[in-house]
Amino acid sequence: MIKKLFSAAGLLLLLSCSQSRQLQSTSGNTASSEKGLKDYYADYFTMGVAVSPRALKTDEAALVLQQFNSLTPENAMKMGPIHPKETEYNWAGADSIVQFAQRNKLKVRGHTLCWHNQTPSWLFVDDKGNTVSKEVLLQRLKDHIFTVVNRYKGSVYAWDVVNEAISDKPDEYLRPSQWLKICGEEYIAKAFQWAHEADPNAVLFYNDYNEISPVKREKIYRLVKSLKDAGVPIHGIGLQGHWAVNEPSREQLESTLQRFAGLGLKLQITELDISVYPKEHDARERRPEDANTAFTAEREQQQLEKYKMAFELFRKYKKVISGVTFWNISERYSWLDNFPVKNRKDYPLLFDKDLKPKKAYWEVVKW
Ligand code: HAH
């Protein structure tokens, strides 16, 4: 009870003193004069985190300000949430994250302009429910990109323009999404071209996961190289980095970074988390053994070793890596609590439920 009162008082203070980093640290975290990830890595790359508008109104905000210098809206800028009807945009969530970033001088990465998931229901169909033509869909994509990129021009410095266009099937190049089925491959180049026209200063990324798989890696490489060779405005590759205690190996990660560095574009680790469960790429039903969700000493150790190894390599490749972003803030919530198994608690981040640094954190900042 007393603890609750204190944290409520801290929150009030935080709200009334939005300029003061000192006072924000009274909301329960270590003092803001203590170094955060962004300070340890100041000579390396920006340190970012994926957030919801809601998290920035809780005591997690003070932790974000202490540790990070870049934000990515986890969901608020995706097509579904931000463009729910053809003639209706919902700016509230994205605006509140961007305003928080501006007040506190953090960078913002936009995520994402074109993706097959979390799309609004109107997007691929006409008012009779029939699939739209290529011309209509490309026009919708163009309008969407111009409207969203233009709104955040000057406040979003980088965009994940296209997310996850590569297939997971070994013998298939591009994902057979509605985008590909209706428009063919050119929707990808068009998306970059329109994003660049809307904001010529924005840094434009192709973003994908399981980039550590040699097979998928080569497909991502092929796509990005073909865009670059065709003169498409693409400036970086986003390696999501949804990893786990069993992968990647040091060799696997190093050859991934080396391969992509060879493209001559910037690299960012855009969605870093290290699950305590062996990696699975597809959603599945719960099994009896999933009941064991304790954050055991063994899981803790395996995870900290992966984090240590990953950051050793990130530092080694600092010339090509321009940013590292964690996908969520603390163990209060991660998307991995519901993926690949619904309601299976995961512990993939560097801060625990009390927002205290875990052992893995100290491995990341000590070298
Ligand atoms: C990411 N997909 C998305 O880019 C992000 O927008 C979302 O919030 C979470 C994860 C990763 C992914 C995966 O690792 C496996 C299957 C599907 C999607």
Molecular structure report:
There is one protein chain. With 367 residues, the protein is of the alpha/beta class. The protein has one domain (43-278, 295-365): Glycosidases (TIM Barrel). Helix content is 38%, strand content 14%. The protein is built from 13 helices and 9 strands. An 8-stranded parallel beta barrel has the order 1-2-3-4-5-6-8-9, surrounded by 5 helices. Helix 4 (60-67) links the parallel strand 1 (46-51) and strand 2. Helix 12 (297-316) packs parallel to helix 13. The longest helix is centred in the last third of the chain and has 20 residues, at 297-316. The protein starts with a helix and ends with a helix. Mean pLDDT is 93; it is low at 1-31. The chain binds ligand HAH. Ligand HAH is lined by residues 74, 163, 209, 240, 242, 271, 281, 335.
What can be said about this structure in brief?
With 367 residues, the chain is α/β, with parallel strands linked by helices. The chain is built from 13 helices and nine strands. Residues 74, 163, 209, 240, 242, 271, 281, 335 line the site of ligand HAH.
- CATH fold label: TIM Barrel
Question: Quick check: average pLDDT?
Answer: 93
Work out the count of structural domains. Answer: 1
Give every kind of bound small molecule, once each. ligand HAH
Low-pLDDT residue spans? 1-31
Overall CATH class: Alpha Beta
Sheet having the most strands: 8 strands, parallel, barrel
CATH architecture assignment name: Alpha-Beta Barrel
- Strands of the widest sheet, in order across it, are 1-2-3-4-5-6-8-9
Distance between the termini: 40 Å
User: How many whole angstroms does the radius of gyration measure?
Assistant: 20 Å
Question: Which structural category do the helix and sheet elements fall into?
Answer: alpha/beta
Estimate what percentage of residues fall within beta strands. 5-15%
Give me the count of strands: 9
Globally, the shape reads globular
| CATH-level-4 superfamily name | Glycosidases
The arrangement of helices and strands along the chain is HHHEHEHHEHEHHEHEEHEHEH
Helix content: 25-40%
Q: DSSP helix count? A: 13
